[in-house]
């Protein structure tokens, strides 16, 4: 009898230990709002619109995150994260089951983390948190024109990728990613790579990143189309090559944080025309916690573009404002507004305003959106 009780007790202890060393977490976020837009282009001209929107700030998602302690500071980790439209329940990211992230890897306390699968690039990881579009204080509609620098992570993730992120060395972190083309005989056809770094020193936070895409959006009708590539079936900018780099700084004092971000994107052979173009983005931003529950945030972005075909030099001015109130630790309501104006030196297809995340561009050179939204995290 005593032996049976001892064996049962040991089995219980071992089961508890095994449970403590391995864990799986279900998590998610639902963001839904009512959005007013002053002008959207239709077949009958421009009209205002009031619509239900999913993900005006954060893309709605759910996921599974797990870790197993392997001992000696080493863990096996995985993440499977789905994106969806809460309005109609459809899958996001081209209908993928886990379109936002899907990876597995090893994480070391001393040496960093290596993961393999579908993942975010280094511009998202390092520079994104310094711009309001990459945070919960701005998100989708605050993105720079056409999300040209990928700081808002709803446009694409990198398939077939291996990623390294270092440990935190006294505030300094760095990392990089390589996305394979998976195309026999065409190693560079639809591949991706990126690098980034950040440094935190007291209230200061610095970051920089670089992203390179090759043949990311070749038409399916082209003989060069790669069905297995790094960003196939995603929504990058349509070009034979994209190079994006940038950096930023944030400074926190008391309940306030102020920051500045600069990015540039160069595109080669846009729409397979042989024409190149570029975007430069200058963002100043700030947020202030009036109370533990109430936060105000705002940003001003000046963007300019250029084309090797000489079709005008568009300039964008965008003002973003948001107030957020926490009803609890997991639920908040927000009011957000964005104004965008674009001007060009000549007639250009970029001469109409188009706030990121809206269903259609404006019929004129300016556009306004106002959203009242609700977010719930679980």
UniProtKB/TrEMBL annotation:
Protein topology in the membrane: Multi-pass membrane protein
GO molecular function term, any single one: porin activity
Keyword Transport on entry: yes
Assembly: Homotrimer.
The protein, known as: Outer membrane porin protein
Keyword Cell inner membrane carried by entry: no
Source organism (scientific name): Paraburkholderia domus
Keywords associated with the record: Cell outer membrane, Ion transport, Membrane, Porin, Signal, Transmembrane, Transmembrane beta strand, Transport
Alphabetical GO biological process terms: monoatomic ion transmembrane transport
Localization per Swiss-Prot or TrEMBL: Cell outer membrane
Record domain Porin: where: 7-342
TM ranges: none
Alphabetical list of SUPFAM superfamilies matching this protein: Porins (SSF56935)
Annotated signal peptide: 1-20
GO cellular component: cell outer membrane; pore complex
